[in-house]
Every structure is written in structure tokens, then in C-alpha cells.
């Protein structure tokens, strides 16, 4: 069921690429992905930067602001609503063991753990919700998230700004194949994170 849900949400996210409200959609996707949504905003960021390469920094900034603000929602869920909404989210995405691992990582170095979760394909919601559960400082969450999320989105957007014209035709030609590959990697990220957390 989780795979079908992720696929449907992936398709729903991607359809905003041709919307006149795409920037609002980008902010919204980035915002909810930090706490309750399975599809990373990169899915929408990539086609938007390719369509408007000169505005790459604006798209990256929208992504960063939305994602960091959304991190506070995830934090609130972990700190205040974990016994209700938090457990539903963690169970639905099969991240129970992952949360336990993140707790351990927080005791070792909370800043680096949050930064790693923000910068890499690790499900970021596991990081933000666990940060609330673990009473991590909001300053630590904010600073690490800004660096991690900002670094990730600005690097992706800038790379597309530089090489977008060269790869645009390839993306358009093989868009369906590339979408399937990206979706597979997204699902594989959830599965791999769950597997690593259980060992």
C-alpha cells in the first residue's frame, strides 16, 4: 500500500510543473515534505528550474524556506502530538526502527545528524519528528536545516542552471523513464533506511 501511495503522490506532485501556481505548489510541497509528505520537493524543483533557468536561485530559495518552516511542524508533531499524529506517521511510513536510530545519533551529534538528514535522501520527516521527541534545541534544528536543505536545493538548482540546456532535451526525450527511475530510488530510500535501522 505504501508504494502505491508514494506513486500517486509522486504523480500528483509532478503535475504542478505546468501550473501557473507552480511556485506556490513548490513551497507547499517543500513545507509538508518535512513532516507528513513522502515525495521530496526536488521532483518539482527540477522541471521548474529547467523551464526558468534564470530563476534557479528563486526556486531554490522557495524550496529552502518552505522545507525549513515545515521542519518546525515536524518538530511540533514529535514534541506535542507524537502519541496521536506522530505514531500514525511513523507507522504508516514504517520508520519505527529509523526513529530509534535517529535518537541514538542525536545523542552523539544532533547538529550533524539533522544536517545529514536535511542534505541527503534520508526521509527528512524522521529527523524532524524525532528532533521534537528528543527535545533538540530549535536553534540546532533551524541552523542545521538551513545549511542542509539550502545546500541541497541550491546545489541542485545551480547545477541545472549551468547544464540545464544540455540535458533538457534528454530529460524531455526520456522523461517517463527518468520518472520511473526517480520514483524507484525514492521508494528504495525508504526501504534501505528501514533495513539499515533494523540492523
Could you explain how this protein is built, in words?
This protein is mostly helical and 199 residues long. It has one domain. The protein has 9 helices and no strands. The two termini are 24 Å apart.
Question: What's a quick, concise take on this entry?
Answer:
By secondary structure, the protein is mostly helical.
Number of helices: 9
| Class by alpha and beta content | mainly alpha
Outline the biggest β-sheet: none
Q: Whole-Å distance between the termini?
A: 24 Å
Share of residues in helices: over 70%
Which features characterize this protein?
199 residues; single chain
Topology record:
Blueprint: H1 2-14, H2 22-33, H3 42-51, H4 56-80, H5 82-92, H6 96-119, H7 124-133, H8 138-173, H9 175-197
Helix pairs in contact: 2-4, 3-4, 3-8, 4-5, 4-7, 4-8, 6-7, 6-8, 6-9
Amino acid at each position: 500500500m505504501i508504494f502505491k501511495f508514494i506513486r500517486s503522490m509522486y504523480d500528483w506532485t509532478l503535475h504542478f510543473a505546468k501550473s501557473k501556481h507552480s511556485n506556490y505548489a513548490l513551497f507547499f510541497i517543500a513545507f509538508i515534505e518535512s513532516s507528513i509528505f513522502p515525495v521530496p520537493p526536488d521532483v518539482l524543483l527540477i522541471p521548474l528550474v529547467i523551464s526558468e533557468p534564470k530563476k534557479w536561485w528563486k526556486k531554490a530559495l522557495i524550496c529552502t524556506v518552505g522545507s525549513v518552516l515545515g521542519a518546525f511542524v515536524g518538530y511540533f508533531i514529535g514534541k506535542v502530538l507524537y502519541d496521536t499524529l506522530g505514531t500514525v506517521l511513523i507507522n504508516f511510513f514504517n520508520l519505527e526502527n529509523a526513529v530509534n536510530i535517529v535518537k541514538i545519533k542525536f545523542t552523539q551529534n544532533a547538529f550533524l545528524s539533522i544536517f545529514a538528514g536535511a542534505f541527503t535522501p534520508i526521509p527528512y520527516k524522521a529527523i524532524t519528528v524525532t528532533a521534537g521527541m528528543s527535545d533538540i534545541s530549535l536553534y540546532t534544528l533551524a541552523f542545521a536545516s538551513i545549511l542542509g536543505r539550502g545546500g541541497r536545493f541550491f546545489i541542485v538548482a545551480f547545477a541545472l542552471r549551468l547544464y540545464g540546456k544540455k540535458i533538457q532535451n534528454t530529460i524531455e526525450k526520456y522523461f517517463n523513464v527518468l520518472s520511473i527511475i526517480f520514483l524507484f530510488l525514492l521508494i528504495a530510500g525508504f526501504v534501505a533506511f528501514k533495513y539499515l535501522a533494523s540492523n
